Amino acid sequence: MLRWEAEHYDRIWEQNELRLRSLNLERGRQPGVTRILVLGDSFSWGDKIARTRDTWPYVLESQLRRDGHRVEVVSLAKGGFTTVNHGERLDAMGWEFEPDLVLLQSYLNDPLPSGPGYRREGERWLYRLWPLLPGLHDRLDRASYLYSFLNARFAVLQGRVRELQDYHALYRDDFEGWLAAQKALAGMASAASERGVPLLGVLFPSFSVASLHEAAYPYVGVHEKIARVHDELEIPLLDLREALAQRDPKGVAWWALPCDAHPSQEAHALAGAVLAEWLPELGVLARPLSAWRSGPTRAKGKQRFALATSLEAGGQDERTALSETRCGS
Q: What CATH number does the domain located at 2-125+166-305 have?
């Protein structure tokens, strides 16, 4: 994985002092331009997506501009960040960009233990997996595609030998991480409401599953629990599972690499396109900020959105992948 990253990323984060993978970072505002702020983890940052412009925040920006909207997207996404981390980043620097709209991307591992100073546990806290060659892992992962592939297969083997926890464990009502995530989400909702800025949620499904169809997807209950919390806080939520399932229900079809279950470039393109349909429907691009506080658009926070794209599926790229491999986010 590390070799792929060294050879393919555009490394745009090295061109700004904030070390952010964002095409727009000017603090000053352009008159008449709607500024969208994105908070998210590696699914928004674009893990294994070579070009920043192909990540969903900038697919969204491009599509909205083609549709005649004057917008710019500032991405504060960071791989591994949790809901607690997003709340801290929004307070620390997000509001300095004076956004007109905040998009908060969520994933199923968001309740992982987190704390101040952007502290958070990775998925290894949940799965307790070991690398194939612990002492040489970093060096080999940086130099060898073959080692990365074999290490991913070793992770699958560990999962078969040992009963591993899955994401359900993070959503127990008494789990400290889930309680902290809800508190952080409520804090962001309150801060956005005070400023009259719409806060909207975007939820990605797990791609480490056999099927994204509702009848077979193992985390439907988790999605519903996340949606209920958003409903209670009046945060409109776009659940991307249905749109992805309608295009291709196989989770592995959306993998970025044969041993990496991050969303592929096609998944980013679809997410950006669906969002570009959803935001104008909510009316959040055209309305003044003051109207969001009391207007009917705010009431739509009581609804749960799971929109399917109207785009043609087009040709299906040939993809080779390992359906059971777990890859970190």
A: 3.40.50.1110
